[in-house]
Design brief:
By secondary structure, the chain is an alpha+beta fold. It has eleven helices and five strands. Strands 1-2-3-5-4 form a five-stranded mixed β-sheet, covered by helices on one side.
């Protein structure tokens, strides 16, 4: 089947090769008109050829009805119209057939060849008929009349339908192209909308995770120390009132510090007019870029060990907890004022005041780093100490910090607790996601995190974070 450039759908509602019923009705009407025309012209053809009139009429009816096939076989319709041109019939079929042929998607050379044949046939037939009329004396014109009328008639019967068909076919193809482009654009916009919705959902999940990390960073360490001091206060309240007063003062100080940090974080989460809290938007593309960079950096080798502990390898299972991403830097574009490495002495002093024996050693030249680097390093040490209070109470802990050329390394290692299991008597709860959280925090900055039990029965946490330019 040869298409005519009209819109074709997979689920056409018309009969046979027609897409729509109205197209079938139109072609049936044109075929009926052509059959009537050819039948009328068949009477004269029968007289000229010496045939019975019914034969000429039947021939005209059959020839004219061929126009019904113009959408399926336009070439056949044009060839039939050329064939019956000498009988001076099929003028309507020739016009409609040439229009349909020119509007189809057939190659231009085929359309040009058939149009040329139709022009030549009409020219010859008209020339012969006009010359016969001049010879018989029916027409009294000059010699110029015969070629003029022949060329004019041939051009009038071929050029207009061909030009109109070419224009309509080009316009149909243009409309189909525009429709396809519109459909493609609609699909792309739908896909973009779906991706935007996925990114928005991902951003909301990231923001919820970030807020949970912030809450953990602010509350876990200080509240854990408060619980430890409260337990000690309960133990010495009657035996040593002076020490009980000191422990009560420490609990109050830590509670005030925790409240201050909570207010700072909630102030960032609130709207500008203070009407309520909301989650600030997270730009998905920069976060995705950071995640890809972190995965690439985590896979590379690290220069040297951290105080004898290898910097590569897989994190082991253990009981030291931690947070995930640091300092609020990667969420929503807002950076909460968080701790820095200069406050590490105060952090260790708080743990020492709670009864932990902590040894701090620093290597290399102390210098300032990007806020997110210092916050992450501080939080790793903080959460490691917090979990020593939880799971290895009374164990001596070593904190090592190494300042290198392009990175900072830290290691927190506790010895075997004095009691089997080393669990604190205050029964501090644990979320169970600490190691994974610390690994994600360090990996987000392109660093490497390793944790695992030591041969002596303790536990070690090591991290290496590259300095950001």
């Amino acid at each position: 089947m040869t298409t005519t450039g009209e819109e074709h759908t997979a689920a056409g509602t018309g009969p046979w090769w027609w897409v729509r019923w109205r197209s079938a009705v139109l072609d049936a009407g044109l075929a009926g008109a052509s059959a009537v025309e050819c039948a009328g012209e068949g009477i004269r053809f029968a007289h000229d050829a010496g045939l019975p009139v019914p034969v000429g009429v039947a021939f005209g009816l059959i020839a004219g009805a061929v126009l019904l096939l113009r959408r399926k076989w336009p070439i056949a319709v044009v060839l039939v119209s050329i064939a019956i041109t000498p009988a001076q019939m099929g003028f309507l079929m020739g016009l409609v057939g040439l229009y349909t042929l020119a509007a189809s998607e057939l190659p231009r050379r085929i359309i040009g060849a058939l149009a040329g044949m139709s022009f030549a046939g009409m020219l010859i037939v008209t020339f012969v008929r006009a010359h016969q009329g001049v010879v018989r004396g029916d027409v009294t014109m000059g010699d110029w009349f015969v070629p003029f009328i022949s060329i004019s008639t041939a051009l009038g019967m071929t050029a207009p339908p061909v030009l109109l068909g070419l224009y309509v076919g080009a316009r149909r193809r243009l409309m189909e192209s525009l429709r396809e482009r519109a459909d493609s654009l609609e699909r792309e916009l739908q896909l973009l909308a779906e991706r935007a919705e996925e990114r928005a959902e991902w951003a909301r999940n990231e923001e919820r995770t970030r807020i949970a990390r912030e809450m953990h960073d602010v509350v876990a360490h200080r509240v854990s120390l408060m619980v430890v001091h409260a337990a000690a206060l309960q133990a010495v309240a009657r035996k040593d009132p002076e020490k009980a007063v000191k422990n009560a003062a420490l609990v109050g100080d830590m509670g005030r510090q925790a409240l201050t940090e909570l207010r700072e974080m909630l102030g960032v989460l609130r709207t500008g007019d203070g009407a309520g809290a909301r989650v600030p938007p997270v730009p998905p593309v920069p976060l995705a870029a950071v995640r890809v960079a972190a995965e690439a950096a985590a896979s590379r080798a690290v220069d040297g060990p951290v105080d004898g502990y290898p910097a590569g390898g897989q994190p082991g299972s253990g009981h030291l907890g931690g947070a995930q991403l640091g300092g609020g830097h990667l969420g929503g574009g807002h950076l909460v004022d968080g701790p820095c490495l200069a406050e590490l002495d105060e952090l260790i002093g708080q743990s020492a005041a709670a009864g932990m024996v902590v040894d701090l050693s620093v290597e290399g030249d102390v210098r300032a780093y990007a806020p997110e680097v210092e916050q992450t390093a501080y939080r790793v040490v903080q959460e490691a100490l917090t979990n020593v209070h939880k799971h290895a109470a009374g164990a001596k802990t070593h904190v090592r910090l190494a300042h290198r050329v392009s990175e900072i390394a830290m290691q927190v290692e506790n010895e075997c607790p004095p009691e089997p299991g080393g669990a604190s008597s205050v029964r501090l709860p644990s979320g169970g996601n600490g190691l994974l959280g610390m690994k994600e925090r360090v990996a987000a900055l392109g660093g490497v995190f390793v944790s695992g039990a030591t041969e002596a029965g303790g536990f070690r946490v090591s991290a290496v974070i590259p300095t950001l330019a």
